[in-house]
Specification:
By secondary structure, the chain is mainly β. About 10% of the residues lie in helices and about 45% in strands. The protein contains 3 helices and 24 strands. The strands form 6 sheets. Strands 3-2-1-24 form a 4-stranded antiparallel beta sheet. It has a 4-stranded antiparallel beta sheet with strand order 4-5-6-7, with no helix packed on it. The protein has a 4-stranded antiparallel beta sheet with strand order 8-9-10-11, with no helix packed on it. Strand 18 and strand 19 form a beta hairpin. It is globular.
Length: about 350
């Protein structure tokens, strides 16, 4: 149970002011504008093989990288000054290249993902499915192995080296806000029967029992880090006993608090300051039922409430804004678009703290 993050080399945040603004935002002390000026918005996308950038939702497209096949998954950096994307390469060389360019199209970094003959820990990534900046200079690349398992590589774009390589049995790894630590799922491989799975979490490669007793269990709500990066929480279904608990890892110890949920139900979890908000989902695991739990992880005290009365989510306006911008981008012919806007909360979504 006593696990601490492993001592990997941390890449310090390059912009102290940006980090401070992000902390204020996540603490609910910064207003998120859902109606920013068009000039504050940047959208990147793929158009006929070219990486394109649009400054403002109505501005003409400006090509920032020449045309060519196999470009995909553009992703803005948290500072809005760089764009990462993947580009197909010769399969005798590697699976693909991870490329980082400036917003004006100058190539800054390139590294091959799964280079041939490199002796990577896992050789099973079939296709790259997502890019995600987890820090100012770190990018997580997620690729599919099978319908439920993914392989992750984390690259330091400054040193152009992979700093992490692991498999997640649910394709839902959770990175700490600084991008240094990661919680991944294990114990539930795709080929295993549901009753044989004993889902576990790994913190930086060290296994944590899903429940205090370590019995067969399932994870009803994927782990989420607190905004200060000092704790993470998840919801556990203890199948053998029918109990459902909220588990919280902090300072190397796991504490569990009972939740009055039915075994097999699904839920979503988020942090609101020091409290944890758990939203119960319907049987399809897609829509909220209206039942919400608010838990103080310090003593396990729980309040049942409704979505309307739950503590506000400071990033909700940013998510709404992002959805609107990406819908506009698709209508304008950009595929796989990503949006960024300073002071609109989108830099927090880009960093993955949601």
């Amino acid at each position: 149970m006593n696990a601490t993050p492993t001592s990997r080399t941390a890449v310090p945040l390059g912009r102290v002011a940006g980090a401070a603004a992000l902390a204020l935002l996540l603490a609910g002390q910064t207003q998120v504008s859902a109606q920013p000026a068009d000039s504050a918005i940047q959208i990147a996308g793929i158009d006929h093989g070219s990486l394109m950038v649009r400054d403002g939702v109505a501005a003409p497209a400006r090509m920032v990288h020449g045309g060519g096949p196999g470009r995909a998954l553009p992703a803005w950096s948290p500072d809005g000054e760089r764009i990462a994307f993947v580009q197909a390469t010769d399969r005798q060389v590697g699976l693909a290249d991870l490329v980082v360019v400036s917003a004006t199209g100058v190539e800054l970094s390139r590294v091959t993902i799964e280079p041939a003959g490199s002796g990577v820990a896992y050789a099973g990534m079939r296709a790259i499915e997502a890019l995600r900046w987890v820090a100012d200079d770190r990018i997580a690349v997620r690729g599919s192995i099978n319908p439920s398992q993914s392989q992750y590589y984390v690259f330091d774009v400054t040193t152009r080296r992979a700093v992490a390589d692991f498999i997640d049995d649910r394709s839902a790894a959770a990175f700490s806000p600084d991008g240094v630590h990661v919680v991944a799922h294990t114990g539930g491989p795709h080929f295993a029967h549901a009753q044989q799975r004993a889902m576990r979490l790994e913190l930086d490669g060290q296994t944590l029992a899903a429940g205090a007793s370590g019995e067969h269990a399932d994870i009803l709500a994927a782990p989420r880090w607190s905004n200060d990066g000092r704790a993470f929480a998840w919801v556990v279904d203890h199948r053998a006993t029918g109990r459902v608990t909220l588990a919280v890892w902090r300072s190397g110890e796991i504490h569990e608090w009972p939740l009055l949920l039915s075994a097999g139900q699904s839920a979503e979890l988020r942090w609101s300051g020091a409290r944890i908000v758990i939203t119960v989902l319907d049987g399809d695991r897609t829509r909220p039922t209206g039942q919400v739990w608010v838990v103080d992880p310090r003593d396990g005290s729980t309040v049942t409430t409704t979505a309307a009365a739950a503590p506000p989510d400071p990033l909700a306006p940013a998510r709404t804004l992002r959805d609107r911008l990406l819908a506009q981008a698709r209508a304008q012919g950009l595929r796989e678009a990503d949006a960024w806007c300073r002071s609109c909360g989108l830099e927090a979504l880009v960093r993955g703290t949601e």
